[in-house]
Amino acid sequence: MSNTSQFDASASMLGYIYQIRYALYLSLRKLPEIADPERFNVSIEKLDDIAFDDDGSPEELLQTKFHGSQGNITDRSSDIWKTVRVWVESIQSGDISLGDMVLSLVTTQAVVDGSLASLLGVGQERDIDKALLIMSKICEESNQTNSMGYKAFKGLSDAEKRSFLGSVYIVGKSDDLLRIREKLKPIARQYVPVQAVDAFINRLEGIWFKWIVEALSQSPSGAINLGFLQDFVEKIRPEYSHANLPDEYAEALPDAIDVEGDMRVFIKQMRLFDAPKKLIEIAIVNYYRAFEQRNKWAGDGLLNPGELNGFDRRLIEKWDEEQAFLEMQEEFDTADAKRKFAARLYQYCQQRGVVPIRSDFMGDYLSKGSYHLLSDALKIGWHPDYGELGDASNEDVA
Q1: Could you tell me which residues come within 8 angstroms of residue 308 by beta carbon, excluding any fewer than 6 positions away?
Q2: How is residue 355 annotated by DSSP?
Q3: What is the pTM of this model?
Q4: 51 near 95, Cβ under 8 Å?
């Protein structure tokens, strides 16, 4: 018995992901080829699966067909004839006009020598006249699946058919989902160091999928200006240099903030000097941002060996130095004096104790939040008696 449900949408979903990733790949390839990216747009599921236009004038339409299993694209393949119907109807409706337009069918299936797909391919076998003869004969056959495609093609005049086929290109054995990502890597290496390639692509795909969803949510469907892609690439590119790191959590917020109910050690440390609620809220946010950003860098393989430990050590040295200065100046033989001492030490570390992890990284939340990570582990503390929290536990605390 098959384990696949009749309602399983995984194949369709893979097809959509393939389409979106392929659009990103084509867009990145096109950037260095065009004089002004702001004149060009790419759209998904608008004029076609993927469409490029120059200042509103359609220039290239692509149909993408993803197949999980290996196979050949035949002369009567529904991929070909459904695509023919879509394109012919767009011509007849005036959405596109023949001439300089390029109409591409990109499929993961193989093209066999001498087949219709081969005759409409990009190689030496390309032959419009032979393709026209084959298609004209096929259109006289009975085929319920392809009937609309046959009807659409037959509705063109002989001159229109030749002009139409002159614009059509079938590209077979196109890279599958994973290999397209591999093809993104040489492009990414033009922008960032080798060790940052995967993280850079992940970030590009993240914003790209967001833009696609936003475009598809518009009515009618919108387009993505290639100038936006160019600007985004140029904006984040410096973050992946050897002197910098990507700043991805500067505006991130935790799902919830519960000052009264939060029993984490770094919060208890702040309660020792009666920190106001607002200050604790800021601490929770900075802790969250630093924690998430550090883990993201580590997961993306962007950190040098021992880099986080070295960064933490510099923070501890800052804390230790300021604590020593304060001990020369302050008396803390009463409970109130100890609270004031703790407040001053905390204020110094949060305001003047910011240490960049790399020279060009500007996100001060990293230092501020990392101080809290260290205080949570009781490696540093604000109140002279912070060591008494040694029995405190972070168990069951999100």
Answers
A1: 294, 298, 357
A2: -
A3: 0.69
A4: no
Tokens 């040098």 belong to residue: 304
Secondary structure letter of residue 357 according to DSSP: S
Inter-residue contact 120 to 183 (CB < 8 Å): no
Single-letter amino acid code for the residue at 289:
R
The length of the chain, given as a count of residues: 398
Sheet holding 168-171, edge to edge: 168-171, 102-107, 57-65, 50-54, 40-44, 224-225
Start-end of H helices in the chain: 10-30, 78-93, 116-119, 128-138, 147-154, 158-167, 177-188, 197-217, 226-236, 265-271, 277-300, 307-329, 335-351, 365-376
Contact, 269 vs 389, CB < 8 A?
A: yes
Out of 11-20, 106-115, 153-162, 362-371, the most confident range is: 362-371
- What kind and span of H or E run contains 103? strand 102-107
Q: What is the CA radius of gyration of the chain?
A: 30
> Which residue, among 31, 60, 46, 16, has the nearest Cα to 177 in the 3D structure?
16
Q: Tell me the pLDDT of the chain averaged across its residues.
A: 85
Model confidence pLDDT, tens digit, residues 278-326: 999 999 999 999 999 999 999 999 999 999 999 999 999 999 999 999 9
DSSP 26-59: HHHHHGGG-S-GGGEEEEESSSSSEEEEETTEEE
